[in-house]
Structures are given as structure tokens and as C-alpha cells.
Design brief:
CATH architecture of the largest domain: Alpha-Beta Complex
Structural class: alpha+beta
Strand order of the largest sheet: 8-14-13-12-11-10-9
Helix content: 10-25%
CATH class of the largest domain: Alpha Beta
Radius of gyration: 20 Å
Number of domains: 2
Number of strands: 15
Strand content: 35-45%
Distance between the termini: 31 Å
Order of helices and strands: EEEEEEEEHHHEEEEEEHEH
Bound molecules: fe (ii) ion
Shape: globular
CATH superfamily of the largest domain: Naphthalene 1,2-dioxygenase Alpha Subunit, Chain A, domain 1
Oligomer: single chain
Number of helices: 5
CATH topology of the largest domain: Naphthalene 1,2-dioxygenase Alpha Subunit, Chain A, domain 1
Length: about 300
């Protein structure tokens, strides 16, 4: 039986999530040897008829070997962003455009990690910039507390965009002789579980991007994919992937210890600060998305009753 307040805690096996596209594997990991994957509490087996994964960075039209889901019915399957995606039921939204993926001037890699926390908790953490000073002191070099200085939020059509202009690596000399490295970051969140981070470092004009995409495997398991995207002018892709992996490890130290793996969808039940407005907007956007999924399912159920 449902406990009071239970309905606002979102778990990975919530049936409403069946009406969204979710990643189930990296493209490179799906071969002619059948691969078992998990989504929303269900198991699927993927097999590739050939050995060519779908390319990106302007080469999407090149031929690639198709992937089949063996033995289970899904609404659809697609391969993009270096990932294989499944929609279990007709999705209420298409995948968003990640522009760097379609840019021939970029190269990329996908790293993957697993956690016991839910996909929503992981996305929530990615949008939280206030933890830089205590979780990422080693990697980002940020030691002073992060305030809401340089913090701006915009929302359109379910998309939440956070712009954050701040200084990292505070103890290190920059190219202009001062201390620290200014970073202008734009985080874009699309429900349910995609957040794209685009970064510009004004001092030397460097750019980088990273997209966190989460696969809600089952109640106590989420797979995180980080799509690391760099301009070709920056050859250090492996270094950037290792850096992203380090940052994610720092996050997982806390996330893996969360008392409850589920995401609290209500923005009134937990303490939120001014520097945490992205978390609130993310919850609003995700809640609306889940309502859409529920409405789509109700429409199908009603039609079946009438037939
Ligand atoms: Fe973090």
C-alpha cells in the first residue's frame, strides 16, 4: 500500500518512464554477441547484425549495422550520440539535439559508470553547482563556497537552462598572470534524464562539452553515460575523458551513500537555496513530463475500454 508522500518520490521503475527514450548501452558495446541490458525493471537482449556502429560528427548518414531487440517488444530503437536508445511505449517527446555531436569540428568519447541511486538523483546532482567547493576541490580546485553570483535560469518548453559564470582552479596562475580560471557554463536539462553542459573558458577561449545521460535500469541501479565532446583543435580527448571520470567518481562518493535512492519530486519537502534554483526547475519540468506520460497512457487505456 502507498504510504503518505510516497507518490512524490520517483524511482527508476516508475511505469510513466516507459513513454520516454532511454539509453540502454554504448554503441561500441553492442556487437554480434547478444548483450543483456536493463531498463525500468525489464531485461532486453540486443544484437547487432554486423560490426559497424552509427557514426557521429557529421557522418550520421554513413551506413551502419542495424541492432535488433531479441524476444521482447519495444515501441522503438535508435542509435545516436554513441548510444543505443529504447522507448518501451510510444514516447511523448523526441530526443533533444546535442549540437556538438553533429559538428564535424568535434570529437568525442562516452564513459559509463553505475550507481545504486536513481537516475533523477544523479541528474539533480549534476545541476547542483553549490557542491563544487566540498566535492570537487581536488578536480575543479574550487575551495571558496559557491554562491548565486553569476547564476541565471531560463525555462522554455520543458527545457531548463542554467548559466553559471564562476572561477575554478582558484589557487592556480592563469595565462593572464592572475589566479584562477573563469568558466562560463551553460547547463541544459531535458526530461527525463539528459543534461548537457557546455563550457567556455574566456581567458584562453577554450571550449568543451559534456552530456550526462542516465539509464534507469531498475529500482537500485542506474547507469550513467557521460558524452565528452571536445573541439578537434584540442587533441587531449583522453585527458578530458579521464577528468570527467574523476569528477563523476567524486560525485558518486556522496550519491552512492544517499539514504533514499529515489528523487523527491516535491520542491517543498526538501531545503533548497537561492543557488539551487535549477533543482527546483528540474523537478517542475520532470513532473510535467511525467504528467504528460500518464495522460498519454490514460488515453490509450480509455481507447482500449471503448474498443
Ligand atoms: Fe558534481
Amino acid at each position: 500500500m502507498m504510504q503518505p508522500g510516497e507518490d512524490i518520490l520517483l524511482d527508476n521503475d516508475d511505469a510513466r518512464l516507459r513513454r520516454a527514450w532511454h539509453p540502454v548501452a554504448r554503441s561500441v558495446d553492442v556487437t554480434s554477441t547478444p548483450l543483456a541490458v536493463h531498463l525500468n525493471g525489464d531485461e532486453y537482449t540486443l544484437v547487432r547484425h554486423g560490426d559497424v556502429a552509427r557514426a557521429g560528427h557529421g557522418l550520421e548518414d554513413a551506413p551502419f549495422s542495424a541492432i535488433e531487440v531479441i524476444g521482447d517488444v519495444t515501441w522503438g530503437l535508435q542509435e545516436v550520440y554513441g548510444l543505443v536508445w529504447i522507448a518501451q511505449e510510444r514516447p511523448v517527446a523526441e530526443l533533444p539535439p546535442i549540437l556538438e555531436w553533429f559538428d564535424q569540428g568535434y570529437h568525442s568519447g562516452v564513459l559509463t559508470r553505475s550507481t545504486v541511486a536513481s537516475a533523477g538523483v544523479l541528474i539533480d546532482n549534476f545541476l547542483d553547482v553549490t557542491h563544487f567547493s566540498y566535492l570537487h576541490r581536488q578536480s575543479f580546485g574550487r575551495s571558496r563556497p559557491v554562491t548565486d553570483d553569476g547564476y541565471a535560469i531560463a525555462t522554455t518548453d520543458g527545457r531548463v537552462q542554467l548559466t553559471h559564470d564562476t572561477v575554478l582552479q582558484e589557487g592556480r596562475r592563469n595565462s593572464a598572470g592572475g589566479l584562477g580560471q573563469r568558466r562560463i557554463a551553460t547547463y541544459t536539462y531535458w526530461p527525463p534524464y539528459i543534461t548537457h553542459l557546455q563550457m567556455v573558458f574566456p581567458e584562453d577561449g577554450a571550449q568543451a562539452a559534456a552530456t550526462l545521460i542516465c539509464q534507469p535500469e531498475s529500482k537500485h541501479s542506474t547507469k550513467a553515460y557521460v558524452l565528452v565532446l571536445l573541439p578537434l583543435s584540442d587533441p587531449d580527448l583522453d585527458d578530458q575523458i579521464n577528468f570527467s571520470d574523476r569528477v563523476l567518481s567524486e560525485d558518486l562518493v556522496i550519491i552512492d551513500k544517499m539514504a533514499d535512492a529515489r528523487l523527491m519530486l516535491s520542491w517543498k519537502s526538501e531545503l533548497h537555496t537561492r543557488a539551487d534554483r535549477a533543482s527546483i526547475e528540474m523537478r517542475r519540468s520532470l513532473s510535467k513530463f511525467l504528467d504528460l506520460c500518464e495522460a498519454a497512457q490514460s488515453a490509450v487505456d480509455q481507447k482500449e475500454v471503448l474498443v
